[in-house]
């Protein structure tokens, strides 16, 4: 790979902010949504057979208790220990995000406030396909549990034998998921949004998936809420001469192995570091089981960018707004205040991105494709809603009534004004 300066780069290629803008795919997804609306479970069975090669008509879509029991028997104790420790960390982190309802009593007797209420029923999507992610189960379900959501419905595409990965099922049971269905893709999103005979509709859908899942979430928004429109994974590392090429290469490839469309970017004012890291990436690629995927990602969307100094590197990072942003520099905390746009920031060489993916506690469902400019990571607030509270006193309405009616009549809304005047306070 060639080391490039900012002048030589096409940043739009690296960030791919247009991900998902494909009318042909939009139309295919719309057709799937329409089928689920019309045919319900029959369409779910047919589409699961068509896209996943699995006929679930005999066993049914819903995971039964005995399947969960079998799953526990199939996982090893080391996995279970790691999963439970990760859940503890994720729970502890998200507990700190909880907020409470509030009421503010005024001297005139009025009370204003806000109720924070959990959503009643949410759906979480857990990807299958090239990899399965027990960690995604925890990251979606645990904040919902902390928020107080009563019903958490998980959907995930089945394997060829009609089952879900035992680790995914165990993670769901440990995290507090209340219903599990063996269905994926756009059809799963449609079932969660519109409901079928066997799956009741939800209030919100969270969790990343492939392009069909993303476009389906986009199209059902408004019928239900969604967390975000997630694209391929990204990492941007800003490094100085203190960084080690072997570690940087490993961190870059940790994202490249996700998806051929994943983006791995290294930024540094040190040309020697960039060159040595590029060589190290090539060496480590040959060691990966998912070498083909990682190589395709690195060659298409990887970059080694030479900047004048760390200041310019930080400006570039904020412009790209990466999903994962590693600050591998001598004094990372001195640069933290300069971060404006990132899904998650990892400080120092002992904070590689997988620490956040699996164990530390912060959520790994993060904004991609530059949307960290306005999206936040999945969090407890994702699963709550706010209700305004207004209790005006007679004294307050007598004082403010004329102002209210004046504003209403300026907008041509006479009935609004009369609703205030009907109290006959002046």
UniProtKB/TrEMBL annotation:
It comes from the Bacteria. It holds the Pfam family Histidinol_dh. One of its GO terms (biological process) is L-histidine biosynthetic process. Zn(2+) binds at residues 255, 258, 357, 416. Catalyzes the sequential NAD-dependent oxidations of L-histidinol to L-histidinaldehyde and then to L-histidine. Substrate binds at residues 233, 255, 258, 324, 357, 411, 416. Binds 1 zinc ion per subunit. CDD domains: Histidinol_dh (cd06572). GO terms for molecular function: histidinol dehydrogenase activity; NAD binding; zinc ion binding. GO terms for cellular component: cytosol. PROSITE patterns: HISOL_DEHYDROGENASE (PS00611). Belongs to the histidinol dehydrogenase family. NAD(+) binds at residues 125, 187, 210. It catalyses: L-histidinol + 2 NAD(+) + H2O = L-histidine + 2 NADH + 3 H(+). Keywords: Amino-acid biosynthesis, Histidine biosynthesis, Metal-binding, NAD, Oxidoreductase, Zinc. The keyword Repeat does not apply. It comes from Desulfitobacterium dehalogenans (strain ATCC 51507 / DSM 9161 / JW/IU-DC1). Transmembrane segments: none annotated. Its EC number is 1.1.1.23. Pathway: Amino-acid biosynthesis; L-histidine biosynthesis; L-histidine from 5-phospho-alpha-D-ribose 1-diphosphate: step 9/9. Coiled coil: none annotated. InterPro entries: Ald_DH/histidinol_DH, Histidinol_DH_CS, Histidinol_DH_monofunct, Hstdl_DH. This is Histidinol dehydrogenase. The active site is at residues 323-324. It is an enzyme of class 1 (oxidoreductase). Its cofactor is Zn(2+).
